[in-house]
Design a protein that fits this description.
The longest helix has 29 residues, at 99-127. 81% of the residues lie in helices and 0% in strands. With 239 residues, the protein is mainly alpha-helical. It has helices at 2-9, 13-38, 43-50, 53-64, 71-95, 99-127, 129-151, 161-189, 191-196, 200-212, 219-233. It has one domain. Helix 2 crosses helix 7 (129-151) and helix 5 (71-95) packs antiparallel against helix 11 (219-233).
């Protein structure tokens, strides 16, 4: 009861406005940019480029939240962003000339998501993770449906029952549940720690993309992926 009363008292106009902005950034705009990038590059490169967002969270903390620049951040920057060109160069040889544009989309998505994470911590502290995520996902759902109605000719959209089944699974198990879990994690351990805990995500994505999608995997791609993972992981190794 006390928690609910505290959350209701925190529902000021500014808090709700910032939460709706966070939903727009984290669940709509970041997802849209990421999917546009995924149209042009492999799932492996997309996940590695997107996984640079913990470093962006740390940079935002230095630039806007008055956090100090640590040598680990500079080391992580140099390591991760030296790994991405290795993967990009290999993918450009294998897939063509759209790799740069695809990575740009995904890096913009990572930046937007980093801003969302940085905004989330104080808002979750005021509203609680459940209410914050519910508000943020409500506005993002409205924006997604609006985007579809504006850009798609719904008469020509043909979705099979099997596709609806997989879309439902993706919506529940890959979007809704993880969103509540990441908000709860941010509220407890902070944005940087929560983002860096997901180091296994790119590893799983690379393995599944190679196995199920038959995406190419070379020594150079593996080396670049290792540099990106080590760079992001170095932010948390000491902790």
């Amino acid at each position: 009861m006390l928690r609910k009363a505290k959350a209701r008292s925190a529902l000021t106009d500014s808090t709700v406005s910032l939460t709706l902005l966070a939903g727009f950034l984290g669940y709509y705009l970041a997802s849209l940019l990421d999917l546009k990038g995924l149209e042009l590059i492999t799932a492996q490169l997309e996940r590695l480029a997107l996984f640079s967002y913990p470093i962006m969270v740390a940079i935002i903390g230095v630039l806007f939240l008055k956090k100090t620049v640590k040598p680990t951040l500079l080391f992580a920057l140099s390591l991760s962003y030296s790994g991405l060109p290795l993967v990009m160069s290999q993918e450009a040889l294998l897939l063509g000339n759209h790799v740069g544009l695809g990575v740009t989309y995904v890096l913009l998505s990572a930046l937007v998501f980093a801003i969302y994470l940085s905004m989330s911590k104080p808002l979750i502290g005021r509203l609680g993770s459940m209410l914050f995520t519910s508000l943020a996902m409500t506005i993002s759902s409205f924006l997604v449906f609006s985007h579809g109605f504006i850009t798609l000719d719904l008469v020509d959209v043909n979705v099979t029952l099997d596709a609806w089944f997989w879309l439902l699974l993706l919506a529940v198990f890959s979007t809704v549940i993880p969103s509540f879990m990441i908000s709860a994690a941010i509220g407890r351990i902070g944005a940087i720690q929560a983002s860096a805990v997901g180091m296994l995500g790119p590893i799983f994505t690379i393995a599944l993309a190679v196995y199920f999608l038959n995406e190419p995997f070379t020594v150079m791609i593996g080396a670049g992926a290792l540099l990106v993972l080590l760079g992001v992981g170095s932010l948390q190794f000491k902790r």
